[in-house]
Specification:
By secondary structure, the protein is mainly beta. The chain has eight helices and 52 strands.
């Protein structure tokens, strides 16, 4: 982990260059298919395995119209990797995002998951709510091949500026006769702390043809259980700030934002003494997260085919996929209150960026917070399709395809989709955060008591008797996408050298998202310390982060409490009923206690997208300069209508909890306590013409040059199209919200591709390519500030009571320092009987009072900043792709190597303190795969590398550090039918790190874990 990865990058590039040169002079390998003449008889020997898969992938690329790459199954029911995304990352220009250590989504040529569309057998597939497809929901056993279209074509689905990925499934009439395979494996995920060390996976595929190969049936099935875990150290945010003086803070100038530190502040070591153009960042918390998860994935597909005559084939298929994931979460954390007046810090400067190496609160935030959560959901996909292919003449072929599919994500627990309950002791007196360039954030916490002069009067150890029940949240979401698609396609061959493809299609996508949550806003604790002590048990993070810089630091807090989730909820409800915990803080939900989810969704959004298209594509075969050439020219027309409707919650009032300065937006309820809703409805439409031209020429035997031009689109994400107005927060400076925009246009890209490919031997080739993409209509968020969205919603901040309290406390002196405890005390002592003021507590000291103030009609109307997506930007992206694939003759050895360079016209400038419009996800990538395949033994070792990339271009950016991973699989065929295998993913257990403007601003450090599979395979 501490090795020089930049050196590895240079070494890999040099190795690929050397291998390309060496392979160009290598001897030709043996053919995959050998024909041996024996009189009038010919025997065909078909080789399977790694080399056969590479040969089919090579054929796919060589025969393609335009720029296409692909992966083929090594044998029936056997794909190169256990996960489709992990196989796709071996393709030039493809990088993947990982979730729970497994490939989930893809980035192609620098364009992230939302810029790529995935189809199954040419059909648009539903997701659980977004544009991006999650490959972790799909097993690879029933897949025969994957095609990646990097250049646009008129007869290929639209929606992918990066690429269109078409997944092809097995069909019985394409593999005639009986074929069957069954595979069993045990899965070991080294990340699990409490799960089973080995979990089972069973898969199988059966295919057979009948009635002289005119009827066929194929059934594939996969069932996997996996227990795993993730452990991470995170910082929720590093808030970027411009340098200001103390006078700027006193006068509340715009740059003097929440948490600002004045230049020259003696408590900030190595901090500038004068205002400059640099940027510094303030951490908001440090949190250690321990998650254990259980996943159960079921996939099945049934395919029936009928070919009564040679010119007609009918296919009916049904696909089912279910992925259940349950996660048990534990954390310990500390909040760094940006408003704390007694801070200390130490800083490091890198150019114009300052980052803390130590950030401390002396007093201030008192809660020693720890939490336990349960997250459980299930993704379910269903698809029923019918396909009819007919060749009425030798020249004309027609195809009619229809499918009705759905994707659904829903809660899978009695506690909803996500549930979280926290406990806290109000005795945190000192908090230190330590940050390093390459390590994890270190949290140090001191417990005890301080007096009114902020002097320590008592030191405590971590004790269950000090803990109180704190806040909780129970969330529920339900997303459903329905896709209904009809496609009619045809091809007419006028002659051997000229043909026309044509087609029309219609697709309707309905995407519905529902959500709600039940929150108890009791983050300052309820009840008496110790009334839950018997339910708590001590655990430690010691050893969890071993191997990461900073793990084992003697200053680091390691001990924390955990508890049985059900038992704590039962205790909380009992203490509520007895009156010891007072009243429910927030909405009580259907159980009236706040400890349960609700399925009365207060946010309900539906977006319907209807597209109609038509295309024509011509193919000319001719000689250019005496060499065979192909020209494909096409035009696709699409028109799309968007309709968005939504039910959103209505709001009744704003409540201000004075002592902790927290404002709450309270919803308007009916007589039964159910949130009232308002209805909104918006429409949009657009149409596009998408031309494409592909030309290739075989300039000498086996050397092909290609040139392609196309226009492609990516549609706005469904979240951007939803028209609901959502309020995200309310604070002392106003609120914030967002709304979608159904009138958005698609992003359009003008693409040019140029490549040279030399197929110098079977299963061996070298290619180099250059491509450009000029993209317009990029979507950017635009914020409209200080909007009075609700005319009867008032905030107590800056109201007459507030101003009177401040004037009395300060005596009118703007330099007089005060805090919310002072205001809390003044309200309790002087305004207890005023309308909208609620005072609880009877203590002598003001901080024992609890004051809540509700906005009144004589207070200011609350204003909100609303963010809206708009078409506003354009950019250019270009890159180079290098690929070599070589098989060393009869030795059984071979390799693949590729390298992709991606460059954009816009880069994130870390020296600008603002959200910037930059395409996230752009990075260079490389792969190196070595294999051996002979005498029944197959060995494959794969190295995957991805350079640092921008994950989020917001004002507080997130950069994912350079990452590499080693994978390996080994199999041996004991007989022609029986084999055993071992697979290892992330063999060297590489970690995953995310940082802000500087590597010192670590946002996340996730422990890397290896995953091992061992199993057996039997072919009947």
């Amino acid at each position: 982990m501490m090795q020089n990865k930049k050196f590895k990058r240079q070494l890999l590039a040099a190795t690929i260059t050397a291998l390309i040169s060496a392979s160009a002079n290598a001897q030709e390998s043996t053919e995959l298919k050998k024909e041996k003449d024996q009189g009038t008889q010919s025997e065909e020997v078909v080789v399977i395995g790694i080399k056969a898969s590479l040969q089919r992938s090579l054929d796919m690329k060589r025969e393609a119209k335009g720029v296409v790459d692909g992966i083929s199954a090594e044998d029936i029911g056997k794909f190169p990797d256990t996960n489709l995304a992990e196989s796709l990352q071996r393709i030039t220009g493809v990088a993947i995002d990982r979730d729970r250590g497994e490939g989930s989504k893809i980035t192609v040529r620098g364009f992230g998951p939302d810029f790529n569309i995935v189809t199954f057998n040419g059909r648009q597939m539903p997701t659980s709510g977004g544009r991006s497809f999650d490959f972790s929901n799909i097993a690879s056993e029933g897949i025969s091949a994957v095609e990646v279209y990097k250049s646009g074509r008129a007869n290929v689905a639209t929606g992918g500026i990066g690429a269109v990925v078409n997944v092809k499934t097995s069909k019985p009439l394409e593999n005639k006769g009986m074929q069957a395979v069954v595979s069993v494996k045990g899965v070991n995920d080294s990340g699990t702390r409490r799960g089973s060390s080995v979990t089972p996976e069973l898969s199988g595929l059966f295919s057979n043809t009948f009635a002289e190969d005119t009827l066929g049936v194929a059934l594939s099935f996969s069932h996997q259980e996996r227990d795993g875990g993730t452990q991470s150290a995170t910082t929720q945010d590093f808030m970027s700030r411009n340098f200001v003086t103390q006078a700027d803070i006193d006068n509340n100038v715009p740059d003097a934002e929440w948490g600002s530190i004045a230049v020259g502040d003696p408590s900030a070591k190595n901090f500038p003494t004068e205002v400059n153009g640099g940027i510094y960042a303030i951490p908001t918390n440090i949190q250690y997260n321990l998650d254990d998860f259980q996943r159960e994935r079921v996939n099945a597909q049934l395919t029936l085919q009928w070919q009564p005559i040679e010119s007609f084939t009918g296919t009916i298929d049904y696909t089912y996929a279910e992925n259940q994931i349950s996660t048990q979460h534990q954390d310990l954390s500390a909040w760094f209150d940006p408003g704390c007046k007694t801070r200390e810090s130490e800083w490091v400067q890198e150019g114009q960026i300052w980052s803390p190496t130590r950030y401390s609160l002396i007093g201030c935030s008192k809660d020693n917070l720890q939490g336990v959560g349960k997250f459980a959901f299930v993704n379910e996909n269903k698809s029923l399709g019918v396909n009819l292919k007919w060749e009425p003449t030798d020249q004309l072929s027609l195809s009619l395809d229809y499918h009705d599919s759905s994707g659904e994500a829903m809660p899978n627990s009695k506690y909803g989709s996500s549930s979280f309950v926290a406990v806290a002791a109000m005795n945190r007196i000192t908090t230190n955060g330590y940050f390093s360039k390459n390590g994890m954030p270190i949290l140090e916490v001191q417990l005890g008591e301080r007096n009114s002069y902020n002097q320590i009067t008592r030191i405590d150890e971590l004790r269950a008797e000090d803990m109180q029940l704190s806040g909780s949240n129970f969330g529920s979401f339900h997303n459903r996408m329905d896709v209904e698609q009809l496609q009619l396609a045809g091809e007419f061959e006028f002659a051997d050298n000229f043909s026309i493809d044509f087609g029309v299609s219609s697709v309707e996508v309905t995407n519905r998202g529902q959500s709600t949550s039940v929150s108890r806003d009791s983050w300052s604790g309820v009840g008496k310390p110790g009334d839950i002590a018997d339910l708590l048990k001590t655990e430690s993070i010691k050893g969890v982060f071993d191997g990461i810089e900073g793990s084992g630091d003697p200053r680091q807090v390691t001990d924390f409490f955990t508890w049985d989730f059900d038992a704590l909820i039962e205790r909380g409800e009992a203490l509520l009923k007895s009156g010891e915990h007072g009243k429910v803080s927030g909405e009580g939900g259907p159980c009236l206690t706040g400890f349960c989810p609700s399925y009365d969704f207060d946010l309900d959004e539906v977006t319907t997208e209807t597209s109609h298209s038509a295309y024509i594509q011509t193919h000319f075969v001719f000689d250019s300069f005496g060499r065979p050439s192909n020209l494909f020219a096409g035009l696709r027309y699409e028109e799309t209508d968007v309709h968005s409707e939504a039910l959103v919650p209505l709001y009744d009032r704003i409540e201000w909890s004075v002592d902790d300065n927290k404002l709450s937006l309270k919803r308007l309820l009916d007589a039964e306590g159910v949130t009232k809703q308002g209805f909104s409805e918006l429409n949009g439409s657009y149409n596009v013409f998408l031309p494409s031209v592909d030309y290739d020429i075989e300039v000498v035997e086996d050397l092909i040059l290609r040139a392609s031009y196309s226009k492609t689109i990516t549609r706005p994400t469904y979240n951007d199209l939803k028209g609901a107005l959502i309020i995200d927060y309310i604070g002392s400076d106003g609120g914030g919200g967002r709304r979608g925009n159904p009138q958005l246009k698609p992003m359009e890209s003008t693409n040019f591709d140029y490549s040279a490919e030399w197929y110098y031997s079977d299963a061996s080739y070298v290619s180099v390519g250059y491509w450009t993409k000029d993209v317009v209509n990029f979507i950017q968020s635009k914020t409209f500030e200080d909007l009075p969205l609700f005319e009867n919603l008032y905030t107590p901040i800056d109201g007459p009571l507030y101003e009177q309290a401040v004037a009395a406390i300060t005596g009118g002196d703007p330099l007089f320092e005060y805090d919310n405890e002072d205001i809390n005390r003044y309200f309790a002592e002087h305004f207890a009987n005023e309308p909208g003021v609620s005072v609880t507590g009877k203590g002598i000291e003001g901080d024992e009072y609890k004051v809540v103030v509700t906005g009144q009609s004589n207070d200011p109307v609350a204003t909100f900043d609303v963010t809206l997506p708009v078409n506003q930007r354009k950019t250019s992206v270009d890159g180079y792709e290098f690929m070599v694939q070589h098989s060393f003759g009869e030795t059984g050895f071979g390799f693949q190597a590729n390298y992709t360079i991606v460059d954009g016209s816009l880069n994130y400038d870390i020296n600008l303190n603002e959200a910037q419009w930059v395409v996230p996800g752009m990075s260079d990538t490389a792969n190196l795969v070595g294999f051996y395949d002979k005498n029944g033994l197959q060995v494959r070792i794969a190295y995957n590398w991805r350079d640092e990339f921008l994950q989020n271009p917001g004002r507080d950016p997130r950069f994912v550090a350079e990452y590499y991973q080693w994978d390996m699989n080994v199999s041996y065929e004991f007989t022609d039918n029986f084999s055993m295998f071992v697979e290892a993913i992330n063999l060297t257990e590489e970690d995953y790190r995310v940082h802000g403007r500087s590597k010192y601003q670590v946002r996340s450090y996730e422990v890397g874990h290896a995953r091992y599979n061992i199993g057996a395979r039997y072919v009947f």
